[in-house]
Amino acid sequence: MNNKIKSPAFSVLIPDGDEANALSVVRCLAEVKNIHVVVISERKYAPIRFSRYVKKFIHFPFGDNENYLAGIMEAIKRTKADVLLPVGVRAVRLTIEKRNICQSNSEHNHP
Rounded to the nearest 5 degrees, what angle is found at the Cα of 72, between the Cα atoms of 46 and 82? Predict the structure, then answer.
């Protein structure tokens, strides 16, 4: 019996795949069909990279917040992610603080 919920296809970008709860979030998203999960991680061989539910893994050394934000924006452009879903405190605070930049970037990617 397949208990997965059907939905239109869309993609979710998790910008902090190093966070302890990121893999749990990916597993929850896997309960819904047609969600393509993309993960950014500072660690090249983060355990989340090997999850069967992660469609694309991007290794990116975060550095300071400006570099981290630039990496997130570049990943959004490259992957055309529909949803940015930070799961850790640093990424949540950064995206809230820079929400105008994030919104502007997403408007350019999705007409």
Answer: 100
